[in-house]
Specification:
- Helices cover 38% and strands 30% of the residues.
- The longest helix is centred in the middle third of the chain and has 14 residues.
- β1 and β2 form a beta hairpin.
- The mean pLDDT is 81.
- The chain has 94 residues and is of the alpha+beta class.
- It has one domain.
- The chain is built from 4 helices and 4 strands; from the N terminus they run βββααβαα.
């Protein structure tokens, strides 16, 4: 992501509530995009959908945009995922 002009931080946050990847445009001082990645920990919960949905709702209530990226999506088409993230940040690198 950083090669495409984003500032990205892994495990952004405090305590037990960390954002998997927080992203912003290089010219923006504030992180705006929360990238939630499915993981073993997510699937270890019996309420996977609830966990992903609740995290996104909470983040959006605090002004973030939340995008969930599955490992399957990333492995099958990482370029499309990056384009989606660019769109969410209002960036167009074409």
């Amino acid at each position: 992501m950083q090669q495409r002009g984003f500032v990205a931080v892994v495990n952004h946050g405090m305590s037990r509530f960390c954002i998997d990847v927080a992203a912003r445009r290089a010219d923006d001082p504030d992180f705006k995009l929360a990238i939630l990645i499915d993981s073993k920990e997510t699937y270890a919960s019996h309420a996977t959908l609830e966990v992903l949905t609740e995290r996104a709702i909470l983040l959006e209530a605090f002004g973030w945009r939340a995008v969930t990226v599955t490992m399957r999506e990333w492995k099958s088409d990482p370029t499309r995922i990056l384009e989606t993230l660019e769109t969410q940040l209002g960036v167009n690198f074409d």
